[in-house]
Amino acid sequence: MLYPLMLRLEGQPCLVVGGGQVAERKIESLLEVGARVTVISPEVTPAIQEWVQEGKLRSYLRGYQEGDAAGHFVVIAATDVSEVNEMVARDCFQRNILINTVDIPPLCNFYVPAVVRRGDLTIAISTNGASPAVAKRIRKKMEREFGEEYGEYLQVMKSLREQVLREVSDPEMRKDIFERLADVGLLDCIKAGDEQGLKERIAQCLSSS
What we know:
Pfam families: NAD_binding_7, Sirohm_synth_M
Protein name: precorrin-2 dehydrogenase
Structural class: alpha/beta
EC number: 1.3.1.76
GO molecular function: ferrochelatase activity; precorrin-2 dehydrogenase activity
CATH class of the largest domain: Alpha Beta
Radius of gyration: 22 Å
Shape: elongated
């Protein structure tokens, strides 16, 4: 059984081996979370090349060489050559580096989940490598259920939390306010574009403290 974790990759050195469409998607996901990305591949897609030219990542236009994984926090092997993927995985296992070999669960010590992001909300879906296609379908369902309004909702909740932490010293009272803010239907107001209703419900929660 796997224990679910979320890694903070901002500023961390990450290596992607491969330059095709799959590697492109993995690189894009790493760039989104602020990772420092290096790609090694004899050829890369136009999108990857554009990111290189924009200074968003480093690239080495050559094949993987033994030891290239050293010094990286996370490595993703995304080539279509099994011998190369195995070499990358072996390097990482020997150095205790996190490695995901795309579509080959035995050559992974972590799996990359399908992700839904709505501002500060992150929903990760994983099938432990059993079926990425199923994870993709669940992600699409979650995207419909959790719309863009959740990003705004969490921004409001974050601001209110900071305000309560500044202004209310009693821990139990804080907890009570947080619970009431979560239950009072602020999300419904945001969905409906009801700014006045949002303000009134917030004021009700804060004043009752």
